[in-house]
Amino acid sequence: MKHENFKLSSIQFNPKKLEVKIKGVTFGPNEIQLIMGPCAIESQEQLEETANEVKKAGVKIFRACAFKARTYPYSFQGLGEKGLDLLAEVGTKYNLITETEVMDPRMVKVASEKVDILRVGARNMQNFDLLKEMGKVKNPVILKNGMSATIEEYLGAAEYILSSGNPNVILCERGIRSFETEERFCFDALSIPILKTLTNLPIIADPSHPAGKRET
Predict the structure, then answer these.
(1) Angle at Cα 27 formed by Cα 87 and Cα 83, nearest 5°?
(2) Domains of the chain
(3) Are 41 and 87 in contact (CB under 8 A)?
(4) For residues 31 and 17, is the Cβ–Cβ distance under 8 A?
(5) Cα-based distances in Å from 33 to 28, 103, 132
(6) 68 band by pLDDT with thresholds 50, 70 and 90
(7) pTM of the model
(8) Which of 52, 60, 68, 197 could serve as 78's disulfide partner, Cβ 3.0–4.6 Å?
(9) Among 156, 154, 114, 121, which Cα is nearest to 137's?
């Protein structure tokens, strides 16, 4: 693997493990953080109910998507900018750090002013225009791996954000597509220790996407 392709995040060039901090919470090698919340923002009532449960559970980071990437155009796509406003309002009310996915480069600045942590979803891991826009804000950015991406391609995507000026990148393993149709995705646990040998960026995991079913 050519470390010069991801030199800003390469542990070979930058051996000190990085920390990303937001409102008293730290993502880093010596910290474990939990992120909870609904997949999509549907209503203020839904957000209030789930935020209350997140707060009671002692979790500090509240995630909810204002924009949803869907396989089919007929599926619910989220509430858009109205959802950002609702998330910001509920986050303030319950004193929670907010997190949401952004899909459109034109919405990055708007979202960055309303939500604490931004996310690049798996389907947009190589949306290079979006990654460059994420590099122009200072919010922490959670970058999910593409479902068929190599580790080197994944780190290359992170490099787009870093090289555009935002050092606050958090990698998130969320599963990959395999041959098994009974599984929603395959959780690629081995990628986490491999990434730790290659990059100085904080790493988190999203086991909910590979599971995908409540009973599993």
Answers:
(1) 10
(2) 3-211 (3.20.20.70)
(3) yes
(4) no
(5) 9, 24, 26
(6) confident
(7) 0.94
(8) 68
(9) 114
